[in-house]
Amino acid sequence: MISLGPVETRLLHETKKGPIVAALIDPEDFSPKQAAETAGKAIAAGASLILVGGSTLANQTRLDAVVKAIRGHKGSHQNHKSQVPVVLFPGNITGVSRFADAILFSSLLNSTNTYFIVGAQALGAVEVQRSGIESIPMAYLVFGNNSATSFIGQVNSLPSSKPNLAVIYALAAKYLGMRTLYLEAGSGSGEPIPRETIRAVRKAYDGLLIVGGGITTAETAAKVAKGGADILVIGNLLQSPKFEGTLKQIVKILKR
Ligand code: 1GP
Question: 3-class DSSP state for residue 59?
Answer without folding.
Answer: coil
